Amino acid sequence: MSDLGLKSHRFRAEREADWRRLELLLAKADRGQARGLGDDELLELPVLYRAALSSLSVARATSLDAALIAYLEGLATRAYFQVYGTRLNLRERLGGFFRDDWPAAARALWRETLAAALIMLGAALAGYVLVAGDANWYDSIMGGMGQGRDPSASTDFLRKILYDSHGGEGLSAFATFLFVHNTQVSILAFALGFAFCLPTALLAGQNGLTLGALSALYASRGLGWNLGGWLIIHGATELFASVLATAAGFHIGWAVIFPGARSRLDAARAATRVSGAVMAGVVVMLVIAGVLEGVGRQLILADLARYAIGLTMLTLWLAYFYLPRRRGAR
Amino acid sequence: MSVDAANPDAVRMRRSLVTPEGVDLRLTLATAGDRAGAFLVDLLIITVSLLALSLAAAFVSQALGKQSGELIMMIWLVGFFILRNGYFILFELTPRAATPGKRALGLRVVARDGGRLTGEAIFTRNAMREIEVFLPMLILLVAQAAGEPVDAALGLLALTWSGVFLLFPLFNRDRLRVGDFVAGTWVVKARRPRLAIDLAHDAPARLARFAFTPEQVGAYGVKELQVLEEVLRARDRRTLKDVAHRIRRKIGWRPEPYENDADFLSAYYAALRARLEHRLLFGHRRKDKFDAA
Asked: In this predicted complex, what is the ipTM?
């Protein structure tokens, strides 16, 4: 045996300092995001990562120290995810999301969005016609969700609901509640798209039916215009958001049904990129809708003001999503 | 790797991830047990946090009087929402890509194609949890809250539903849940082993005291070497004695009086590793003792 000891031992002794240094940088990066590392350290990281990879290759080929190889595999894997993982900080990520990613994703789903809107409108029309023809349909459609708003209620009661101001008491809690509830329903509609679109379509249809039935009830008492204001102030945002959530669900479901040349798995994964971005935006829209519904609607009682706010919001959303914009302006 | 090599489960869960530099990192997927354990830890954290939040809200509202009711209500609503939806998403967006439960079990989320783990993928894989876990819970809760007894058909439906989704990972090779399947992610073990000491660090000094003949050193292959490494690292006295006894008999080694088992094994380990690594440099990897040189 050689007097200098094992070659694999000398190999380790020569490189160990680099490995330790890499381990230190990784621990630092884990603790405080990438910002925890200075400029020099950020430049050092990829170099040390490649050194660790090369050490791993050499060790696999020449060393029989199993613990050493396991250590290097773990180290190289951690460094790989650090080096090839996301380099953007949260602010850049959010900025890019609102400037480009979200509207681009929503535009890409225009067909699904159209389909979702048509389903909801169609269902609303059906609900309206059914209830207008026979008031008994109302109960079967609302199924206990009417909260006293049913055909037997007096016109005064129905009117009072539309203009019921809580005098500022409890509004923010109400807004929060609405936001949480609506978001949960939207996430559900999106997630169910995976099951070949059907449950998502059902949820959208049910949503539309309820709207139609409610409109028919109010229209029969000559309160149609008033209900419109009550709905549109937040509905322009909320219903838009729920149409987008439905569209995002459709997009995934469609990819699973018709994957084309790819495997179903790959198709679903590709669809997720767009749908996920749309859904993250939907949550933001629902926060705004919750505030409009919980606070705006209770404080602003004039029909015209309600219509003005609702239609302005609708215009803003449409312009934000669909107006052509310069490409590559990043 | 010696632990893994001895364990067929670990080999079955191994997946290759080749870096752009051309090195295979050999990821190990998390087992269904790991996943379930991590989820239980997360669920426990969420439940305890919710309880703490509720208690804190109750105490504060009592201390402040009735006016604070609205604030407390908001805190509770938002807290519940964030815990239910944001908990998983926010933790998986961090550089470690793991919730506290996953960290506790040494797991992390990774994109299946080895690329960047995007925010969209994280959002999607966790949104799917809604239908996997929370929907059947919701069905039962709503039925109960409506004052109707949960009937057998509904209960059975919820049970079947959650059964299909909860057990989904058991029915595919990669242990993907529906969310992973759709979002293009999987969960792997995030090993962070410490650099253990090199057992052959004082090889020359040891070999000076034990002079093995080439025949004696040539009795074993790589597999036996790595088992010996494990034995030496574990340092269990009875195992050391047994193994030393068997190796002495196999190579016909006459122990000197009061020869220490650990010393003997360390020296033999150094000698065996030196020989096998030497052969390795010449292109021959002797798998085990049955592999004729």
From this structure: 0.81
